[in-house]
Design goal:
- The protein is α+β, with helices and mostly antiparallel strands and about 80 residues long.
- It contains 4 helices and 3 strands.
- Strands 1-3-2 form a 3-stranded antiparallel beta sheet.
- A hairpin with a 2-residue loop joins strand 2 and strand 3.
- The radius of gyration is 17 Å and the shape is globular.
Length: about 80
């Protein structure tokens, strides 16, 4: 048996992920970790959502809204319940 036959086939799905983790957000936006979190605090970048345990990620739709207009993006403040 050859080694390359035992490897799983790569997934070439055209579907984009529903959520992006921090390392992906930094790669896509070319922002540093500190800049991402500073802009979140200023309301100029989408906030991550809690997934499970310590995991959080950014919804692709919100990240796309920022990509479409980074200077005009303003997070809508939601009232605390």
């Amino acid at each position: 048996m050859r080694f390359h036959q035992a490897l799983p086939k790569p997934n070439f799905s055209k579907a984009s992920p529903a959520f992006y983790r921090l390392h992906d957000v930094m790669r896509i936006t070319t922002l540093s970790r500190s800049t991402v979190y500073r802009r979140i605090a200023e309301g100029r970048f989408p906030s991550p959502v809690h997934l499970a345990g310590r995991a959080s990620a950014w919804p692709s739709a919100e990240l796309q809204a920022w990509i479409d207009d980074p200077e005009g993006y303003r997070r809508i403040a939601t009232p605390l319940s």
